[in-house]
């Protein structure tokens, strides 16, 4: 979430509370907490993870998060990542599929070392339709180690959906998952 979006949402919540709907917000929050734990997508703290991976996970747990979503294994050995998740009482039900080398590219983007158009080009090359099946296989193997039930493909570019033939090729890459 961008800072601007966070501020808008915060202002909306404060405004709603001021006009007497705080009870509604409270009920919604209680209902959400009763049904589903609130998790953190760790990409939101990538810069901190790069500075101090274990310390950041410890802080995330200390804040009160119980679930986290990973980006692959952050270019690290998934067994070591799992050990740290276990150490701090965190579970990770899901990951964004990222082949090993793409994590470094994504991290460079977060650190503003590559531009939006540059990362789009690199992402499209790395996540080409012909490469989907091995990426999925790698992600599933990593998910088993990390104890994850779900993997998700975070983006598909319009160019990859330009024709029925391309979409059929893309979907064929997922047949492995059955």
Q: Main traits of this protein?
A:
single chain; 178 residues; alpha/beta; TIM Barrel; 2 domains; four-stranded parallel beta sheet; 58% helix; 10% strand; globular
Question: What does this protein look like?
Answer:
The chain is an alpha/beta fold. It has 2 domains: 1-36, no CATH class; 37-177, TIM Barrel. It has helices at 3-18, 22-35, 46-51, 53-63, 78-87, 100-110, 116-126, 132-146, 164-172, and strands at residues 39-41, 67-71, 91-96, 150-152. It has a 4-stranded parallel β-sheet with strand order 1-2-3-4, with helices on one face. It is globular and about 50 Å long. It starts with a helix and ends in a 6-residue tail after the last helix. Mean pLDDT is 80; it is low at 15-21.
């Amino acid at each position: 979430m961008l800072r601007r979006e966070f501020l808008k949402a915060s202002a909306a919540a404060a405004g709603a509370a001021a006009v007497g709907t705080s009870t509604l917000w409270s009920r919604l929050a209680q209902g959400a907490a009763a049904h589903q734990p609130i998790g953190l997508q760790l990409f939101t703290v990538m810069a901190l993870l790069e500075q101090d991976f274990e310390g950041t996970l410890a802080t995330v747990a200390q804040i009160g998060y119980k679930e986290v979503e990973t980006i692959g294994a952050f270019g690290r050995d998934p067994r070591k990542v799992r050990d740290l998740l276990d150490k701090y009482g965190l579970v990770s039900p899901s990951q964004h599929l990222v082949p090993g080398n793409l994590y470094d590219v994504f991290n460079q983007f977060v650190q503003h070392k590559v531009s939006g158009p540059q990362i789009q080009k690199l992402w499209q090359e790395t996540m080409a339709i012909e490469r989907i099946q091995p990426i999925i296989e790698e992600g599933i193997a990593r998910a088993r180690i990390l104890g994850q039930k779900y993997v998700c493909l975070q983006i598909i570019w319009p160019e990859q959906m330009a024709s029925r033939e391309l979409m059929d090729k893309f979907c064929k890459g997922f047949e492995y998952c059955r």
